[in-house]
């Protein structure tokens, strides 16, 4: 049985997008054409690859088995293309980086701009999402995570630690009762995550200071920082974000000092793709240096 690489690309797009329309957008093809190509591939392999339902296209057992081989083929084609292009010098092509919005807003723009300046033919895309990036659906090529994933054929590398503190605007502190101990936090307005939208246990900061109620909440770190800058209350903020909010002051830094880590996550097979490896190395070094620089300013 001989499989056409173009059919496999279509299969991968449908498997990752879970619909013909999503695959069509990625491939820039009409969904009906995508559907016909999927049906043709199923005829070739002699088995249904997708379970169709109103919710979308889910992989069957046969589809799941083909998925592993299709991804290996995809990686082989990418490696071959890069070798022929000669990637020992400047890098080219597209690399999509997924990250939680705090990292995406306050760290990645500087880091990616420097990488792009060195490699002008490289196209870097940042996907900022207040949730875990789904690499299996190829939402991104590389992902920054706040805790290492426990499942999947993934390569996980620790980038560096970062720090967070309880902060508030100077105006808020001047206009409200003094805070000398953690007990004094009672009665103050608290800014934080929407409790049922905390997508990683490492982000449950307020439980560590005993805060039971959040007065102003968002699933976005940037929005939370906006609340704090406006003097809306107290909240946990990344030290690397504080240079962007000079009117914020640390509160009880001796009692409330949190340490978290960033991890770089990618498909295990991508480690053999030179472009991905080189971008991953530059990304890790750049993030580590940028965190150290910004935290040094505070």
From TrEMBL:
Q: What is this protein called?
A: LysR family transcriptional regulator
Q: What processes does the entry annotate via GO biological process terms?
A: DNA-templated transcription
Q: Which PANTHER family match?
A: HTH-TYPE TRANSCRIPTIONAL REGULATOR, TRANSCRIPTIONAL REGULATORY PROTEIN
Q: Per its record, what are the GO molecular function terms?
A: DNA-binding transcription factor activity; sequence-specific DNA binding
What are the HTH lysR-type domain coordinates in residue numbering? 3-60
User: Quick check: keyword Heme in the entry?
Assistant: no
Query: Would you identify the family this protein belongs to, as annotated?
Result: Belongs to the LysR transcriptional regulatory family.
Keyword annotations for this protein?
A: DNA-binding, Transcription, Transcription regulation
């Amino acid at each position: 049985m001989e499989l056409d690489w173009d059919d496999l690309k279509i299969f991968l797009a449908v498997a990752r997008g879970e619909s013909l329309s999503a695959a069509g957008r990625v491939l820039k093809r009409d969904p009906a054409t995508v559907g016909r190509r999927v049906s043709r591939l199923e005829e070739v392999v002699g088995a249904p690859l997708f379970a169709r339902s109103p919710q979308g296209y889910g992989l069957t057992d046969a589809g799941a088995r083909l998925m592993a081989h299709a991804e290996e083929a995809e990686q082989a084609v990418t490696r071959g293309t890069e070798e022929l292009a000669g990637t020992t010098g400047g890098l080219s092509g597209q690399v999509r980086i997924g990250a939680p919005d705090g990292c995406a807003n306050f760290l990645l723009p500087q880091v990616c701009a420097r990488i792009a300046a060195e490699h002008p033919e490289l196209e870097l895309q940042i996907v900022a999402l207040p949730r875990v990036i789904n690499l299996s659906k190829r939402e991104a090529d590389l992902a920054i995570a706040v805790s290492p994933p426990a499942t999947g054929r993934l390569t996980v590398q620790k980038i560096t630690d970062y720090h967070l503190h309880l902060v508030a605007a100077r105006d808020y502190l001047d206009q409200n009762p003094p805070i000398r101990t953690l007990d004094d936090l009672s009665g103050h307005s608290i800014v934080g995550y929407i409790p049922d939208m905390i997508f990683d246990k490492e982000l449950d900061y307020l439980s560590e200071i005993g805060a039971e109620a959040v007065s102003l909440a968002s699933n976005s770190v940037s929005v939370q920082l906006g609340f704090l800058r406006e003097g809306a209350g107290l909240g946990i903020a990344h030290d690397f974000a504080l240079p962007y909010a000079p009117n914020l002051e640390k509160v009880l830094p001796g009692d409330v000092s949190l340490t978290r880590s960033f991890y770089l996550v990618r498909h295990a097979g991508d480690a053999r793709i030179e472009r991905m490896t080189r971008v991953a190395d530059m990304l890790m070094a750049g993030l580590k240096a940028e965190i150290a620089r910004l935290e040094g300013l505070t």
